[in-house]
Write a structure and sequence with these properties.
The chain is an alpha+beta fold and about 100 residues long. Helix content is about 30%, strand content about 25%. The protein has a four-stranded mixed beta sheet with strand order 2-1-3-4. The longest helix has 14 residues, at about 20-30.
């Protein structure tokens, strides 16, 4: 039996980032249905937007600069909860413009 992981999305209520947090929550629960035990939403203040997996930081708005693209977030979560698992099109490198 594989252990199931806990994701916590901490979001700023003053900044009204609940909908963004819920969207990421749904994307992660859909993609990692077998690997995740829960994706919790943790309200906070002060401009915080952070995503942790089992207490390990995956994304921090202040450190990483803004909000993650969903494909980048899924890659980072996958690397912790299901290393080696393919994410299909999300694993393909971006094609440079003009080539």
């Amino acid at each position: 039996m594989t252990s199931r992981h806990r994701v916590v999305i901490t979001y700023c209520t003053q900044c009204r980032w609940l909908l963004r947090a819920q969207w990421y929550q749904g994307e992660l629960l859909t993609t990692f249905a077998d690997e995740l035990a829960e994706v919790a939403l943790a309200p906070a203040t002060g401009g915080v937007f952070r995503i942790d997996v089992d207490g390990e930081p995956v994304w921090n708005r202040k450190r990483d600069g803004g909000f993650p693209e969903v494909t980048e977030l899924k890659r980072r979560v996958r690397d912790l909860v299901a290393p080696g698992r393919s994410l299909g099109h999300a694993d393909r490198p971006a094609v440079p413009d003009g080539d």
